[in-house]
Specification:
Layout (H helix, E strand, L loop, with lengths): L18 H22 L6 H23 L15 H26 L7 H7 L4 H32 L4 H19 L7 H18 L3 H19 L1
Length: 231
């Protein structure tokens, strides 16, 4: 595996990344989202509240937890470079290709009656610029960063010490896809595509030794979906 790190800003590395760190970061995000939902649930969740409050707290909770845990651990490679812009295009191309492939398979299997993911249903109802901005910020910026930190950052490094490059890529991709399914069973038709995306992004991190290519690819992937929903 070619993932490289260096010394963290806070000093020397004092421990390795563990699977438990990925679980902790993800759990903090979920708990934060539940707290946010409880705080605004009395009048029903609007699209803005669903993304700005619930989604915002979930992603920020995860991001902050990973950054806090990483103060004395190997850096996860958040070192953007101008060339990373190419991975935005890769992510967008993956979104277009896999969406068509998923559509064709689903049409063949389900005959056109396909469940729609809960988050997609909510985003489709975005009206007015505050709600649309919230959807874009959370879906295109915060969610990709949070998910990449957990799956291709912490989890990939934790599993990479025990498994080969290919096995690590497959395992992290499987975890990435299954988490989406556990959070929303209506996401089942998209699970194969999410698995493929997870493998590609894991291989990018392993190839370049940095997390930002995967983050950029994830941003491009989500951007295509958001633009299709909102415009």
């Amino acid at each position: 595996m070619t993932v490289t790190g260096g010394e963290p800003a806070g000093g020397k590395v004092s421990g390795d990344w563990q699977v438990s760190h990925a679980v902790a970061a993800f759990s903090v995000g979920v708990l934060a989202s539940l707290a946010g939902a409880a705080a605004v649930l009395s009048g029903g969740l609007s699209v803005f509240e669903s993304f700005a409050v619930v989604g915002g707290l979930q992603t920020l909770g995860t991001i902050i937890t990973v950054l806090a845990l990483g103060r004395r651990r190997e850096p996860l490679g958040l070192r953007p470079r101008p060339a990373d812009g190419a991975f935005l295009l890769l992510g967008a191309a993956l979104a277009l290709g896999l969406s068509w492939a998923t559509y064709l398979v689903v049409q063949w299997v389900f005959g056109g009656d396909v469940p729609v993911q809960g988050v997609v249903q909510v985003a489709e109802g975005a009206e007015g610029w505050p709600a649309r901005v919230a959807v874009v910020v959370v879906s295109v910026i915060l969610a990709p960063l949070a998910e990449e930190l957990v799956f291709r950052g912490v989890l990939l490094r934790a599993l990479g010490r025990r498994f080969s490059v290919r096995h690590t890529a497959v395992l992290t991709a499987a975890a990435f896809a299954l988490i989406h399914l556990l959070l929303d069973f209506d996401a089942a038709p998209a699970i194969p595509a999410l698995f493929v995306v997870g493998v590609v992004f894991a291989l990018l991190v392993q190839r370049y030794g940095r997390l930002t290519p995967a983050v950029a690819g994830h941003v491009g992937f989500n951007l295509v979906g958001v633009l299709a929903l909102l415009y």
